[in-house]
């Protein structure tokens, strides 16, 4: 069976909480769940898995969560190959205070890992979301699973279940 690793960056714990739910749903053991701040050393940590699920909230104005910054710089500089790796994305945002860059970090991760040869899966419909602009929106869909636990936490569970259903189908799990 394909191995799954979850890597997340989360400043106030929102993306972390969803990472733990994804891990439970996909039966990913705790030691295969990496907090980018504490557990990530280098890309070899990621290369151990066939399927990578990356969590990243959006900060600044459409920027990646702090713990993803250095790894993405290393990705740009060292240009490791992610060919043969399948990557799905998820991340928190706030559509009311930051609807001009809603969950845009997912778009950044999408482009950077696609450029390194990865296959990106797990896009999600934009239906039911409100925002002005998102760099994570491509051809009418988000490139990963966005959630907003600041304003609409009540919707996250059903959205997550729908995303996981689609993802499992795509991955043949
Ligand atoms: C200073 C600041 C900047 C933010 N910028 C964005 C943004 O550009 N886009 C967005 O969707 N959310 C933005 N947010 C909202 C965070 O993504 C949101 O609070 C999220 O729940 C944090 O998740 P985390 O705890 O996993 O890091 C911002 C929040 C703060 C405090």
TrEMBL record:
Q: Name one GO molecular function term.
A: FMN binding
What range(s) does the Flavodoxin-like domain occupy?
Answer: 4-168
Alphabetized InterPro entries for the sequence: Flavdoxin-like, Flavodoxin, Flavodoxin/NO_synth, Flavodoxin_CS, Flavodoxin_lc, Flavoprotein-like_sf
Instruction: Identify which cofactors the protein needs according to its UniProt entry.
Output: FMN
Q: Keyword Aminoacyl-tRNA synthetase, does the record have it?
A: no
Keywords, in A-Z order: Electron transport, Flavoprotein, FMN, Nitrogen fixation, Transport
Gene3D superfamilies, per this entry? 3.40.50.360
Task: Supply the Pfam families for this chain.
Answer: Flavodoxin_1
The family database entries (NCBIfam families) matched by this protein are listed as: flav_long
Q: What does this protein do?
A: Low-potential electron donor to a number of redox enzymes.
Q: Which family does it belong to?
A: Belongs to the flavodoxin family.
Name of the protein this chain belongs to: Flavodoxin
**Which organism is the protein's source?**
Azonexus fungiphilus
